[in-house]
Amino acid sequence: MTRGKLRKVLGCDAVIDERCSKYQQKKRVCAEHLQADAVRCKRGGNELYRFCQQCGKLEQLNRFQGKKRSCRMSLAKRRTNSSHLEAQRSEGTTPAASPHPTFYELWPAATPNSNSCASDSTQRCGDAAS
């Protein structure tokens, strides 16, 4: 099977081979369709798609705002990340705590206590307590 038969865009007859960029080969989309406003995708029915430059995949056209090349989800992620980092820079604070639970929150029994090796600098791990 040749690379040309693995295209994702319906009706595209461009040959995607070693002469194309590595990116085009990897994504299986020709240069013309990477930049197209809308394409029909194989296995996509009648839905229209556009290539998202941030996600690196064909996404449904309704996920884009206007003529933008990045889907709303990736734009929202970037906006959130950049505003969060900008706020930290202006406040001079360290990065905020993660919204995800920490290891010790999930497994409280693993929390270091006063008898642990880490809390007693005179005792080494594996040594018996005196």
Automatic annotation (TrEMBL):
Pfam families: SBP. Residues 82-96 have a biased composition (Polar residues). Residues 75-105 are annotated as: Disordered. Keywords: Metal-binding, Zinc, Zinc-finger. Residues 4-85 form the SBP-type domain. The keyword Zinc-finger applies. The keyword Metal-binding applies. It comes from the Eukaryota. PANTHER family: SQUAMOSA PROMOTER-BINDING-LIKE PROTEIN 4 (PTHR31251), SQUAMOSA PROMOTER-BINDING-LIKE PROTEIN 8 (PTHR31251:SF169). This is SBP-type domain-containing protein.
